[in-house]
């Protein structure tokens, strides 16, 4: 899975179809495999990391941890057995960065003990009725670490959710007084379509809470939209449009059920 597949995905979870696959010998080292990935995607080998994708208990598929460079000489079989749990297929997320941030490619060592999780950011555009993967901004380590590619942020678990709102506004070119609503996308299996949106699937976030209190972890997805008045929301609905992210995903469910 790559940032490019995420950018065009309109669904709940991270896009898992139309992805590249590699047939790898068990004894092939991680360094050799990583070079193959670099050649395939035409990305310098020192400008990307590969994350293990796991299926969580709530059935969502998310990046769990990056394969460390210390595993360069480990065989892919060892990585599969030691890092991939009981999953039969090794699924990976390709995290690419095009330029250093504050002189560094990745967060400082030691920050991946859960203190600075990587989260994905999606924006629901009320006008176009589409989801886009909000491309990110450069930011200084380690208070808020932001990748410039597909919408990803490294956030401090002790930081408040509202801390990222100015970044989101700046990215979208919104005036500073624009009010935003943030939602966490939770449980959803796109191959097992539910009959309705449940509270555990998409939940409004309390912006005064910390990311730790919000139980945010690596690979979580946060969607945001402009906050609108009830009058504006009624106008959208009268035209058959979604006025909230939740309504947008409800329309996706109805469309899938009618297929």
UniProtKB/TrEMBL annotation:
Domain Ubiquitin carboxyl-terminal hydrolase 7 ICP0-binding: 48-135, 149-252
Residues spanning the signal sequence: none
Keyword Transmembrane helix set for record: no
Record-linked Gene3D superfamilies: Phosphatidylinositol 3-kinase Catalytic Subunit, Chain A, domain 1
Keywords: Hydrolase, Protease, Ubl conjugation pathway
Protein name: ICP0-binding domain of ubiquitin-specific protease 7-domain-containing protein
BP GO annotations: proteolysis
Organism: Jimgerdemannia flammicorona
GO molecular function, one term: peptidase activity
